[in-house]
Amino acid sequence: MRKTLFTLLGLLLLLGAAAPAVMAFTQTSLTYQKCTSCHAVVKGKISRVEEIRTTPDEWGVIIDRMARLHGMDLNPQERDLLLKEICATQILSPEELAKVWYMDLYNNPQVVERPQGEVEEKRFATCVRCHSAGKINSYRMTESSWAKVRDFHYYVDPAIDGQMREMKWEQEATTVLAQLAKSHPYGKAWQTPNVTPAGSWLIFGNEPGKGNYRGSATLKADFSGNFSVKGSLNFDDGTSEQFQGEALLFGGHALRTRTAHNNFKTLGSFAFSNGTIQGQHHYPAPAFRTSTSTWYPAVGSARLLRVTPAYLLANETTSLTLEGVNLPAVQASDLVFKGAKVKVLKAERVGEAIVAEVVYQGSGKAQADLQVNKLNSVPITLADRIDHIKITPELGRARVHGGVHFPAEGVQFEAIAYAAGDVALGAVAAGFTLSEEVTRENDDDLAWTGAIGANGFYYPMGDYGQILTRESKLEATGLVKVHAAYQRGGYDYAAEAMLAVVPPDYVQRIK
Ligand code: HEC
Ligand code: HEC
Known about the structure:
29 strands; binds heme C; alpha+beta; Lipocalin
């Protein structure tokens, strides 16, 4: 057995040696060493591996399967290195990756996927049952690779015909996969640009339920080609966080972080392109906070990067905070709003920021550009007043606690203000409450789901255990209504959403 394996390996190596000079994976690469014992090298390319481009996260799923089901050796250090090597050529482009950004997040994802048009409706019916559409959209493959996905499914799930019994799945899948070969073609291998995120960064972020923050971080390349990260964040509510950990860069644009913030572990997924880093980091269950930020180079010429709030309402005196790099000392006349009638009452530097008092004296919806001295301008939205508010997510999903391996999962709701015509203005500090959504006689869900924090954070209190005193045998789960209330300029605003508190996800999740 051993001997045949070596002969086979030798044959594969020979094939590889006879190949054209340009190879994505040299014979000394870890990928070549790990994969070619089973995957033949054909014309200098490792079969299957070089016929697929996908995200670092889906490559993780694939190589974990090679270890789990096919017995490939894999330790954590090798895993990181393999993923980096493979992604150097087999990753999606930044534009392709941006469309499936929600797939590489580690939070309790609240994204609802909806099919657009007939082709997608058909694809959703045939494919989006056991996993997300995002999983499929994460792949670009050659025509023959897409075609193999059908039989791959018969292998990973031999019961598929029975599970999909309302259709002839084999036929439907063949049709869908032929379409995918056209809409999601392999194209060509990715070429990793020669860029590095090493350096000092200025961070501007927002954490729903907690508010805006500003911070800084330093990324340093280490001996293994990974990066160490260290930084701090200062929140508008006066709290602060120190963080440190490591970052890995895939294909020169997909940055993944593993950091501890004040000793709480987080996982981050960021896009590094055009010289900025943009993305999210998450506190895993049970905290389940999501934090979105943009990182700008901390050095360089003076420039304006963020204005908060990013909207003004007519005849309301607003205190604006302008942040950026090396902002100058200013007076009121240095701030100019191009394209709208905005009066600047006062402006001064406070710390590193500029704080200004301004009034929008015009009327109607408009977009203006705010410029400070001769610096770059930032857009600002103008409106007569807030027209309505909406809650995101529309349907929040929380999970009750199900034992040490299945911690509870909370949901952060947020109220977003809109101007007439559904123009989003920004998050507002609404107050949140819950009420019963009556779906049956003696509906008692609210009594068991507990309360929501005034800032919109819901955390399930119940355990997924028997509740002998609850007649409906629903443990601590249920469906309730979420209300947000907000007042501004003499107007009352209200919005509703739903909250589903569901059992723990005991089945290992396929994204
Ligand atoms: C021990 C044998 C073995 C090794 C080693 C191995 N593979 Fe595989 N690989 C398989 C088999 C069997 C399949 C087909 C079944 C499957 O997809 O799980 C496969 C399928 C694949 C596919 C196709 C998946 C799809 O969606 O169609 C990819 C990509 C892949 N392997 C990548 C790799 C990479 C990368 C490595 C090296 C890090 C590797 N494999 C190492 C046995 C192996
Ligand atoms: C009955 C459940 C089921 C249905 C229906 C289904 N899939 Fe899957 N699919 C799976 C499972 C399970 C995996 C993951 C296997 C693993 O990684 O261990 C998977 C993985 C995949 C992958 C990743 C391949 C890889 O190498 O990991 C793609 C792409 C995919 N499916 C596409 C499709 C498409 C396209 C359809 C419709 C034609 C479809 N799936 C329908 C269960 C399903």
